Amino acid sequence: MANLEIRQLLKKNRIPDNDGNLLIFILYCPIGLILILLRSILLLGLFILGQVLPDTPAPQKFINKIACLSLGISIHIENPKSKENVNVYVSNSLSIFDQIAVCSATGAVSPSCRTTLEKILGLSTYCFGSATNLDNFKNNIKQFMADKKIPIYFAPEEKITNGRGLLKFKTYPFEFANKVQPICIKIDRPFLDVSITTVGSTFTSDMLYYLFSPITNYKLTFLPPLEKKSMSDEEFGEIVRQNIATSLKVQTTDFTSSDIAEWEKRTLAEPPVRSQHRVTTRSINPELQRMSKQVKEVLPHVPLNVIYSDLYMTRNVDSTITNILEGRVSFTPEQPTSSTASQPSTSSSVSVGTQASSVCSSGKPLFNTAASSFPKSASERSRSFQERKEQLLASARKRYIEKHNLDIPV
């Protein structure tokens, strides 16, 4: 099995984090906005046609072509002669519109219980009931296949990934036929490097980027059909998964769709880690320098430029101390010294202000809040911070009041 981590199976950013791609994206924006407007008009017509035309193969094929045009989808079948007439097709899952590409190539329908709008846009979908009531769901599919004689398309991963690995397959799709044809899907956007989906993205946001992007290419590869014979559904599903993974040259993982959903939920719930804000000498604020020294007195192991960067956003000493203690500011600790650092030069250095002396102006030794050693693991650092947090805040408040001779109870 693969050593891939869950975070490697999902993309966090819609646009790759480099200046070149960002510049291309900005320059393309006016064209993208025009495309959204024009394609939205086509989608409105598609919605009307979906309500009016009968649910038969010929009209659905016509609607499918309009959908591909509206969403900027181009479908290329690498080996069309390898496609066989089977009752079940399965593939990896890369996007919300995989079924448009697969169903256009195979004439199959895909199970769906989405809203009316999504069903129209998704096309070639059919509601068999909720998969939470699995027995009823499976009975409806069997009845449909017997009555309509139309194949079914499944994406057994049941969760969209970036394609770097395959999740564990659900086993129920392999109950409906003894012969299954695997399909490998690859997607790329050649003229604009924009991710198909990201962590926490919605159907609507993903669809907007289809409308915005110049083109989204789907490449389908039909693998030789596989027969179940005497294998169990689980064994058969694993063989199908291994065949798709081998063809795509990706790894199989032990993660399930539930694992991905849980990881996404935790990731979205976590507070964002603040990055160090770049500060040039031209933007140095004397008031923030003064506040930086106050924080440095309390947290001598934190680099002064990191303190300044957070103060640049919070404009509050207590808030910055809290952010640092609770791990919302990333930094490399430094050994506290009693020497005074030089003032920032006129170069583009991010160094700000001077380090505070280890003895305050009143001549009293400062309360040493630094740990004897900086823990390596995040959990140990967090525990250390929590234990000292209240003490640090109280000490900082007391010294601040004494230093400025404020008439406030300590």
Biggest sheet features: 6 strands, mixed
Beta content:
5-15%
**Shape verdict:** elongated
N- to C-terminal distance: 60 Å
State the domain count: 2
Count of DSSP strands: 10
Oligomer: single chain
Q: Any low-confidence stretches, pLDDT <50, length ≥5?
A: 275-282, 339-367
The number of distinct helices, counting runs of at least 4 residues, comes to 12
Mean pLDDT: 79
Q: Helix- and strand-based class?
A: alpha/beta
Share of residues in helices = 40-55%
> How many whole angstroms does the radius of gyration measure?
29 Å
Written as H for each helix and E for each strand, in order along the chain, the element string is HHEEHEHEHEEEHEEHEHHHHH
Biased composition (Low complexity): 332-355
Membrane topology: Peripheral membrane protein
Biased composition (Basic and acidic residues): 378-390
Transmembrane segments: 21-49
